[in-house]
Amino acid sequence: MAEELAAKHARLAARLGELGSVVVAFSGGADSALLAHVASTTLSPARAPAVTAVSPSLAAEELADCAALASEWGLEWRTVHTDELHDPAYSANDGSRCAHCKSSLMDALDGLVPGATIVLGVNVDDLGDHRPGQEVAAARGAVFPLVDAGLTKAEVRELSHELGLRTWDKPAGACLASRIPYGTPVTVGRLRAVADAEAALHALGFAALRVRHYGDTARLEVPIEDLAEVLAQREAVVAAVHAGGYRYVTVDLEGLRSGNLNQSLGAVR
Questions:
Q1: How many CB atoms lie within 10 A of CB 150?
Q2: Under a CB-based contact definition with an 8 Å cutoff, are residues 101 and 84 in contact?
Q3: Would you list the DSSP string of 175-195?
Q4: Backbone angles phi, psi at 226, to 5 degrees
Q5: CB 3.0–4.6 Å: which of 77, 153, 202, 263 could bond 70 by disulfide?
């Protein structure tokens, strides 16, 4: 392991050691997975439970992977149910949607383990994006150990690889609501449509993708290098997206851009 990366790994472990007892918000993505693993090995599983928030915004396959990772790594894993969809401010889907979601998450995690600090898998690169949820979480006492250690997204993946974690190359994910353009209300039906279409596309071998929801039209985003394969499997791709209930299927020629709907808010990318 490179000296600088090893030093950041040590800083991460030291920061977690300072906290003593934590609750890891565990989505199963590369960031929260690394945080959960290091917290569990540094503090012990009992002092670092990994908790996954379950709601219609979480794809079923992501929940299943959280359970699998917890089993593989010996994490103390549990789930909590969040009810952000019952919050009209969240469902309205304006630029503050993530803030309302994080508020619901903090409600569910706060006090779950008396005396423990809630920690989130936020890395240094995340700080420059439009992420109002981070501000809400921090204001309510959550801590970002990956940031404290100075880890970037690339370093999170590199360190995960060095530690033998299979999440090192897991495609970046986000809640299903992020597929719905701001201003379009978030509903269970729309989240289910996105989830069904994406699950069917994953089954075709497309690991990294987004299905953006525009009424009865789905806008498919895949990495540029996968565009040819989309065309090669055109009929199967169309059938997969139709399985989500969409009538029309379009492909974004600019490719996959995580969080690109933030551009409508004038966010700096």
A1: 14
A2: yes
A3: -GGGGSPTTSPP-HHHHHHHH
A4: -100, -5
A5: 77
CA-closest candidate to residue 144, choices 245, 256, 54, 25 = 25
pTM of the complete model:
0.90
Q: How many residues does the chain have?
A: 269
Compute φ and ψ for 209, nearest 5 degrees.
-165, 165
Q: What is the DSSP letter of 248?
A: E
Q: Please choose, from the candidates 80, 90, 132, 136, the residue with its C-alpha nearest in 3D space to the C-alpha of residue 111.
A: 80
Distance CA 136, CA 133 (A): 5
Instruction: Give the separation between CA 235 and CA 262, rounded to whole angstroms.
Output: 31
Q: Is 53 helix (H, G, I), strand (E, B) or coil?
A: strand
Of 46, 44, 144, the C-alpha closest to 102 is 144
Amino acid of residue 241: V
Tens of pLDDT along the chain (269 residues) come to 789 999 999 999 999 999 999 999 999 999 999 999 999 999 999 999 999 999 999 999 999 999 999 999 999 999 999 989 989 999 999 988 999 999 999 999 999 999 999 999 999 998 876 678 888 999 999 999 999 999 999 999 999 999 999 999 999 878 999 999 999 999 999 999 999 999 999 999 999 999 999 999 999 999 999 999 999 999 999 999 998 999 999 999 999 987 666 655 544 32
Is 25 strand, coil or helix?
strand
Q: Is 205 strand, coil or helix?
A: coil
- 179 close to 60: Cβ distance less than 8 angstroms: no
